[in-house]
Amino acid sequence: MTDRMIRLEALLSANGVAHALLGLDARLLVVNQAFAAAFGLLPEEVEGKALGELGVPAPIASQVEAQVRRAALTGVPVSAFGLLPRGEVMLSPVRDADGKVTSVAAIADTDAAALAAARAEAERARAETERVRLEAEKGRTAIGRFLSAASHDLRQPFQAMHLFHHLLMGRLTDPGSRDLGEKLEMSIEAAETLLRALLDVSKLEAGLVRPQVQGFPIDETLGRLLNEFAPEADAKGLRFNVRPADAEVITDPVLLEQLLRPILSNALRYTESGGVLLAARRRGGTLRIEVWDTGIGIASADQSAIFDDFHQLGNPNRDRRHGLGLGLSIVRRLAALLGLPVSLRSVPGKGSVFVVEVPLAVERAEALPAEKSSAA
Q1: CA-CA distance, 54 to 31, in Å (whole number)?
Q2: Helix 218-236 crosses helix 253-269 at what angle (to 10 degrees)?
Q3: Distance between CA 152 and CA 146 in Å, rounded?
Q4: The CA-based dihedral angle spanning residues 310, 315, 316, 317, taken in that order and rounded to the nearest 10 degrees
């Protein structure tokens, strides 16, 4: 920090009044010590945070964000409540050399007594938050140990059942007995698939899955999915095409692949003729990964419900050959964990398209033009 910046910080903090500079998205860019102290934090712990990350309730955060946008659009100072734990805040637009509003300055209208009370309240809230965090972490650790043991111990009987089934099939000769043996194998596989899905959902619900975000070429992921699902498409006489993008994206590659897999599986399961297209298309700073199919389609009334646990369309008898109804609920959880928007368009009787939007690596996004989306 330069001497000038140090003197400016001292000036802004000397009178105990909270000051902050907010981006047009209401994210806190720079704050002085008085502002940070109102939350019981240091300036570096506040800067770069959204209001919700500081414990500001969502309705109040939305109101403040609306006032920030209003100040930026009108160029006129406005007041707002809730940006700080106590008191009113004046929001004033800040312009650059060209007169364009680039940020909004926030100055608290509060006295020293209110600020001291806010500090004490913030400290109490911070201590309670830390206590709850430690309790939750302890709970996650216990759940993690249980799920790890369950994943190992519960799968061992299935491995034994597969082995015994293989030995049994070697001894069965008449068609009727072999047919029963094949149905037994289908039941074992269905139970094993259900167990695996339930364990995956439990790990996501318990917060045990931590994304490892990195940049990577999307075509490698698309290639693996092509190799995995092409045999299934061939067996049903369906076309399965992949349209690569020669682009790098930023997310967790393993979790992204886990997210796309149930979408592709459903597309192939509910498509009897035509085919499935897995395409990657640039759109601004994002890459749209699209899964098109010519299957049965989904009515508008059912499109939100398909992401619920155990929800299935057109399978009232719970035929396990049509899946378990957990695939898209896992998609929903993984998308929320990774912060990736997932959307759906569908026409009953014609097919569906699922879209997952993934951030492009900056250098690739700037170097290559956006591609317009087209029909499969």
Answers
A1: 13
A2: 20
A3: 10
A4: -100
- Cβ–Cβ under 8 Å, residues 218 and 287: yes
CB 79 within 8 A of CB 68: no
Residue owning tokens 């805040």: 89
Beta bridge pairs of residue 333: none
The pLDDT tens digits for 296-354 are: 998 887 877 776 655 555 544 444 444 445 668 888 888 888 899 999 999 999 999 99
Tell whether pTM > 0.85: no
